[in-house]
Amino acid sequence: MSQAQLEKGLELHQQGKLDEAVAIYQEVLTADPGNADALHFLGLIAQQRGDLSTAIEQIEAAIAVEPERSTFYFNLGATFSAAGNLTGAAAAYQKASQLKPDWSDALVNLGTILGQLKKYPPAETALRQALELEPQNVSAMIGLTAALEGQGQSAEAEEIGRQAIALAGSSPEVWTNFGNALNSQEKLSEAEDAFRQALAADAAYSTARYNLGNVLNKQWRKSEALACYRQVIEADPNYLSAWQNMLLNLLYEPEQTESTIFAAHRAWAKQFASAIPAFPSEKTAGKRLKIGYVSPDFRTHSCAYFLKPLFAAHDRDAFEIYAYANLRQQDETTPWFREQADHWCNIIDVNDTDAAERIREDKIDILVDLAGHSANNRLGIFALKPAPVQISWLGYPSTTGLPEIDYRLTDEVTDPSGDADAYHSERLIRLEDGFHCYQPATTIPDVGPLPVLENGYVTFGSFNHTSKITEEVIEIWSQILTRVPESRLLLKGRQLDSEIVQQKIYELFENQSVSAERVTLTGWITRDQNPLALYNRVDICLDTFPYNGTTTSFEALTMGAPVITLRGERHAARVGASILTHLGRSEWIVGTLESYIEKARELAEDLPALQEIRENLRAQLQQSSLANTTEFAAKIEAVYQEICVNKLT
């Protein structure tokens, strides 16, 4: 009787008559409470209706009755996936594939989910097993391309991508993953073509448009990249990566103002944070304050040069340090941070909710964000407010836009009292003597002789990220080269490895009547090749605007090269002024484009002054507040203490 009813219910189910099917399945369960098929079918109907928690409950009940049914686990995996529980989905698909090893769909889904979890080696294994069963399974090829790419095996990913294109050239997913493999190998034109092929197949495929924006960015086509990110957001307002790439790119744009940048960050926060419930949190009454630092950069990274002094000089009798590392790959610097922290927790594979719960359980008094909207940030954790006080510092030169972050550490130069306060969602805490403390690498090259004395001409330089070099910057640098006869310009940056970017930069200089012979472009230099030594070829460094350098400016000063900076109207455009003010070299800060040009000319014509600077600048930096680790840590700790005793209200 139960089998006949089940078949009748299934027929109604397949016809879309869900209420009638549910009634029959429930009748079956009334007569046979342990009927696994009825439980399973009720779970599938709940899944169809979007009631995922009920669906999971029903399917798990079916599994409890018949734990060897691979189909049950497969559908449980699909339900977990729909609910966003990728870990649960992976476990379910894993079980389904164990029960039925020749089920390629289960292996493909398992590999795809593992790839989304960034567990690339097991993802590759599952997908290769699927391809052994079905050598022309395009879904397996799509997933395998991504899994190989995630492991840095881009050439092999490209080859699998070509095989997939031959089988499914109209698939936007195939073209997109293929494009990512090309992009990683710096085959930028081919990657762009692949993403455009994906969009030709499906103009609404946001992933392709997002990745097109990324490859355009690498080609120094920033306005086109920004347009892509905006189009993605318009089509899919919940596309987090597109939002954060857009926000970062806005900081490079000369036409943006503090007002427009703030509005964009607040729009992001409204989209992603307004519906997130906050965790209850309380201040602890213990002797030591618990400070939690959240960062993807507990490694050899520019942020580490500023974070190390604080970690090394923290008062351990008064503060207990927790490091929450969002770190996929550790390097030789990571063990140092792990040893300096009282507690270490890698949250790379922990979702925001679980990470916030861990932080709440740790009873953190102050949680510090060190990334802002830069790569691999965890602002989603801060939106959950797991700590009673939350602070933003160091890794991002603008507001986060997130109201759950209470304070931002800055100084009076970068964020003058008044207007700047209105353009931050955080309350600004302005630190005396600057908000930076720089500790260079343990081994740095000696400062070399002034290059002009050997070359017979002045060499200007800028080693800032190429995205900070706008067309206006090139125009102004060209005027400097014109006013200083025979001078040269040396630029270094990762994007300068690209011939496309090189050609465009040379073209822009030539449009300003500066020949390519006067401009040297140098790509990425690995750490073992001693990149700081390149400053020994530069007499004077030119800061970028409106997005100043930070680490590069400290490196230049360490190597005896003066830095000329143009003070702008927002934080990113005033960092250079902050550094030079607190170094005691405010004479290198200018307020207009004309004075920027003239300051460069004046310095270039005063070789005795350049020689004196070369000989003494490193010592001046080392003796300034910008390198005083003890005073800097004490200054930060005083702020922490004030906050926690409610003196900052």
How would you summarize this macromolecular structure in one to three sentences?
With 649 residues, this protein is of the alpha/beta class. It has three domains: 2-191, Serine Threonine Protein Phosphatase 5, Tetratricopeptide repeat (Alpha Horseshoe), CATH 1.25.40.10; 289-430, Rossmann fold (3-Layer(aba) Sandwich), CATH 3.40.50; 451-627, Glycogen Phosphorylase B (Rossmann fold), CATH 3.40.50.
Name the CATH homologous superfamily of the largest domain. Tetratricopeptide repeat domain
Query: What is the number of helical segments per DSSP (H or I, 4+ residues)?
Result: 29
CATH level 1 class label of the largest domain: Mainly Alpha
| Beta-strand share of residues | 5-15%
- How many domains? 3
Instruction: Find the structural class using helix and strand composition.
Output: alpha/beta
Low-confidence stretches: none
What features would you describe in this structure?
The chain is an alpha/beta fold and 649 residues long. It has three domains: 2-191, Alpha Horseshoe (Serine Threonine Protein Phosphatase 5, Tetratricopeptide repeat); 289-430, Rossmann fold; 451-627, Glycogen Phosphorylase B (Rossmann fold, 3-Layer(aba) Sandwich), CATH 3.40.50.2000. 53% of the residues lie in helices and 9% in strands. It is built from 29 helices and 13 strands. A seven-stranded parallel β-sheet has the order 3-2-1-4-5-6-7, covered by helices on one side. Strand 11, helix 25 and strand 12 form a beta-alpha-beta unit. Helix 2 packs antiparallel against helix 3 (36-48). The termini are far apart. The relative contact order is 0.06. The mean pLDDT is 94.
